[in-house]
Amino acid sequence: MNLKDAGFSTKLIHAGEIEDQFGSATVPIYQTSTFRFKSAQHGADCFSGASDGYIYTRIANPTIRALEQNIAALENGFDGIATSSGMAAITSVYMALLNAGDHIISTAAVYGPARGVLEQDFARFHVEASFVNTANIDEIKKVIRPNSKVLYIETPANPTMEITDIAACAQIAREHGLKLVVDNTFCTPYLQKPLDLGADVVLHSITKFINGHADIVGGIIVTKEAVLYKKIRHCMVYIGCNMDPHQAYLVLRGVKTLSVRVDRNQENAIKVAAFLETHPKVTWIKYPGLASHPQYKLAKRQMSGPGSMISFGLKGGLEAGKKLMDNVHLAVLAVSLGGVETLIQHPASMTHAGVSRENKEEAGITDDLIRFSVGIENAEDIINDLRLAFEKV
Ligand SMILES: *Cc1c(COP(=O)(O)O)cnc(C)c1O
After folding, report:
1. What's the sign of the alpha-carbon dihedral 38, 43, 49, 50?
2. Which of 70, 169, 218, 319 fits 15 for a cystine, CB–CB 3.0-4.6 Å?
3. What confidence tens digit (pLDDT) does each residue in 263-296 have?
4. What residue owns the CA closest to ligand 1's atom 2?
5. Residues 69, 265: Cα–Cα separation, whole Å
6. Are 308 and 287 spatial neighbours (Cβ–Cβ below 8 Å)?
7. What are the structural domain ranges in the chain?
């Protein structure tokens, strides 16, 4: 059947499938570093592009290609580029789209190292960066310079849950000749399709929802069209941050259940958010599924569901938060997110510890902020775990 017209869950299971000589029902792990050429001419043709045969796994590999084509189909993109980690995806995109002297505008509350690598490393190559609250479109307009080349957004942002209007950013990008890049890790293409809203590039930490089982680290980039695809793939291959075939196989296995997992993650998150919102020890909560979220309307328009990431603050600030984290038993005290298991962490001292105090404050990453990634356990058990831990606070 033509998968172009198929539903999302059908694509999850079948997009990128390959036929092999044994009729394998799933994509096998092609655990090989190199590929045998049929002849000297065939080898030369593979390198010149006259033949599309495989050459070497850093360049391309059948298991990895199956995953790349699967995610590209989910994002309605041209093609995918799998990487060894989400950060490898991010740095490959920066490398491909920025030259010395160029300027990038980024969401201030972006994934910590995505900001750190610009401030600490790309700055050494004379790449300039501005970090603003991209949820406020006027802040973006204010910092555009003649040398601005990239608008990089994360929505919902990590961990403030601020939402940026992707279509509005696409319009600004078009007007000013910027490439719009969206980190879609929190939503996955099941809940949000940035390329359909006008983005040029979408990327993921595949470690999170897409793989979903907290057993591999990986990343992926999907572009809207061929020119950027070639440019970014070139950088990935030359840096050498390719995914491994075994890693790709595990993700191909995990992605099949993306829609059923996210449905359950979300169903649970809605219940957990309702519990937190009315708890007397919770001072504030940010969850796109609650009418109290400042961009509730935008979330409804741009995302097909509120997802399962919740940020909240406690009476008593960080000390109270530490007590809570030390007294949950079902929720795992760990960074990362988007898995089948519920996770709890404290961004100011953990994922965003590398961001300066001043920049954290500016980005809204307060000391009392607790980040909660709701898993697919029974909702009553997740809530009971929190209820008992709150009693110790
Ligand atoms: C985890 C994460 C990353 C980085 O991905 P790694 O796989 O850990 O390298 C990037 N963006 C977001 C939103 C993330 O949550």
Report:
1. negative
2. 70
3. 999 999 999 999 999 999 999 999 999 999 999 9
4. 205
5. 25
6. no
7. 8-255, 258-390
